[in-house]
Design a protein that fits this description.
Structural class: mainly alpha
Radius of gyration: 21 Å
Helix content: over 70%
Distance between the termini: 60 Å
Number of helices: 11
Shape: globular
Strand content: under 5%
Strand order of the largest sheet: 1-2
Largest sheet: 2 strands, antiparallel
């Protein structure tokens, strides 16, 4: 895939413009968005991702378009799972609903910047060392097993990371928040507010989640441009999706199981690709393994869509049945 410098620049300028507009809207009128507002924004960003995929199809062909859609769907699904932790963070820091939009948006901007650096480093490693896919594949299978064992997220699972603890220790902090402001003045002294800690928590937590999502998407496409844009489109509508799903998050009881299956599938796919391009001397004498099958992108896309669809339907059916039982007992 030959992406020109101009295409990179246009993409980055367009994405920055979208973020600026988003910041202006949220900054002008902090509020809890309605279901209608959230639905329209989510539809807008999903439609934008679909149009981008169509543009890839028209200019680069079905192979790269399929890679983009598979990567975007995987990243988007992992982002939905991340929302569970975002809910826990908001509750832990008692962030008012009216200010949660700004927290999410700035946290997502932080995550985009850090993920961009992460993707650039990953692309450089992948292009030079094909054997890294052995590690990616094993790591994704390990993550899938951990996800199955761990189950659903709850408040007791959340622990402040090193960056948050460092910020609390080093930065001059006020005890009380001042609306959505990051700084406030107390007794004539300029201090940071707890709202900054919340934004750092959202941004760094998302970066931690990238430890499995970045290897997962590199298992679907090796193109840095597609890896980056799929990540961006998955994160762009996350703020509105947070408010749209609301209580529905608690009903997606099998989402972790579905994501575990997807990550395990991609992990196996990566390991097979590593075998097919093997150069490690202690595996098959340093020669590619001929029997390792190639899994086409259309099959990957079908497995991802099918798995997530089954997990979602099964979750909603179980949640509906549980609520019916509770109602009948009451």
């Amino acid at each position: 895939m030959n992406v020109t410098t101009l295409e990179w620049v246009v993409t980055l300028v367009a994405l920055v413009a979208l973020l600026v507009v988003d910041l202006m809207i949220v900054g002008r009128r902090p509020h809890e968005p309605s279901m209608r507002e959230s639905s329209l924004w989510v539809a807008f960003y999903v439609g934008l991702a679909a149009l981008f995929g169509v543009w890839i199809y028209l200019h680069e062909g079905s192979q790269y378009a399929g890679e983009f859609f598979a990567g975007w769907l995987t990243e988007y699904s992992l982002s939905v799972d991340n929302l569970f932790v975002f809910v826990i963070i908001m509750a832990r820091f008692a962030v008012p609903r009216a200010y949660q939009q700004k927290v999410l948006l700035i946290g997502i901007v932080i995550a985009l910047v850090m993920r961009g650096a992460f993707i650039a480093a990953g692309a450089a490693v992948v292009s030079r060392f094909s054997w890294v896919f052995y590690f990616f594949g094993l790591f994704l299978v390990y993550t899938a097993i951990t996800l199955l064992k761990h189950g659903e997220n709850d408040e007791s699972d959340y622990k402040e990371n090193l960056m948050i603890r460092w910020a609390r220790r080093i930065l001059p902090m006020s005890k009380e928040s001042d609306g959505a402001k990051l700084t406030t003045r107390v007794n004539g002294r300029r201090l940071f507010t707890p709202m900054l800690i919340v934004m750092i928590a959202i941004g760094t937590t998302d970066l931690i989640f990238a430890l499995d999502s970045i290897p997962a998407i590199f298992g679907l496409t090796k193109e840095p441009y597609l890896v980056f844009t799929a990540n961006v489109f998955a994160l762009m509508g996350l703020r509105q999706l947070y408010f749209l799903l609301g209580g529905l998050l608690n009903r997606l009881v099998y989402l972790s199981v579905g994501l575990a299956a997807v990550l395990a599938f991609i992990g196996v796919k990566l390991f097979l690709e590593a075998l097919a391009t093997n150069s490690l001397p202690f595996i098959n004498g340093g020669e590619p393994v001929g029997w390792a099958p190639h899994i086409p992108i259309w099959l990957s896309l079908a497995v991802i869509i099918g798995t997530l669809l089954v997990a979602t339907i099964a979750s909603l059916v179980k949640s509906s049945r549980d609520r019916s039982l509770q109602t009948s007992k009451a």
